[in-house]
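=== RUN LOG ===
request id: a7f3
mode: sequence -> structure
chains: 1
length: 379
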Amino acid sequence: MPKDRKRKNMLIIACIMLFATLFTLVPAFSFSVTAARMNAGSVSEEYVRYQSRLRRIEKITELEENGFRLLEDQVFAMPLQKLPEDTPEDEVDEVWFYAALDKQYHRLVIFIADDNGQILYKTDQLEANYCYPGELRQPIEKLASVSFQDVDNDGDTDIILIVQCHNDRGAYREKSYKVGDVLFQEDGSFYRDYRISDKINRFDMNKNPACILNFVRDGRSTEFLYTAETYGELLSHNFRVIEEQSYTRNFEKLGKMKVVPGVYRMAEYDVFMIYLIDEQGNIVWSFQPMEDYDNLYALKGIQGKDLDGDGFKDLVVFAKYSYEGDSGELLVDTVCTVYYQRTAGFEKDEDFTAKYKCTEEDTLEALVGKIRAYWGWQT
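=== RESULT ===
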């Protein structure tokens, strides 16, 4: 058979096979698109029913019958204006603050009511209700904190909210975290500026009301901790270096680096970060070992040593962090955080630290030995 004819026949056979494959895939594709549309329609219908239940609530006593659970520990009298402390009670214009969770979807709703429980204002347009984008159900556990402050210096009382969430899936599966928000009072109602809420949460200023107030009212921000590109930028924003724990090491993949730990003050809290700075003063890598704790209580030590036996220097951070308990008490945890040097940078340890709980008796040197022993080697 001539080569061109053979090539032509093979091309025909290939086209037939491709057509047959596409023919079998079309119904499946059509089904998946239809299923997606049905699911979107289902969510839309559920949202309409949810909103209908919310709209029916005109008095606080109607929460239960409409599927909402009142958070009884978060009911407060709220003055509408910031007044001197010696103002007579009969001259204070007060309303009542209520919070409730939807029993089915765990969405948080804020209500403002008068003395008779009549609803004056309500909203579920809160940052915490968008943790699972495009979904009705949200991972809200509780309203952790409420604070009434004049945030924007207009004389009216605004509302600072901190919500505790816990994901049951996704990248943050089984992790708890806080979501901060501010409701600004204006013309007898309230509104939320999503741009402010975004920065509060993206740059970890959501730990407590004092930090949120320090950002929104006073203009202090931790944003530079995450966006700075040079050592000079850090210093220009009053980043305070912990000099006694700063040193230079040769990190094999990155070269000669200065390890720079330090803090930035937000309200009465120290936000802790560590940077690797090259010889030109550029930030090459950054670490946030404090994670969701409120404050660096004490830095016990940092060491750059090979911990897992691959020949590359890793970083171990040993520190104490403080945070506020459920009853407002000060709690302190002793924490060891480990970062392993890899080809593309550093990788946070999820093995040793998940199995070993640090105590007051631990030392940095002893921890280094325990980490190395965990990986089956010692020097």
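=== NOTES ===
The chain is about 25% helix and 35% strand.
Helices lie at 3-56, 194-202, 209-216, 223-227, 231-236, 352-355, 364-374.
=== END ===
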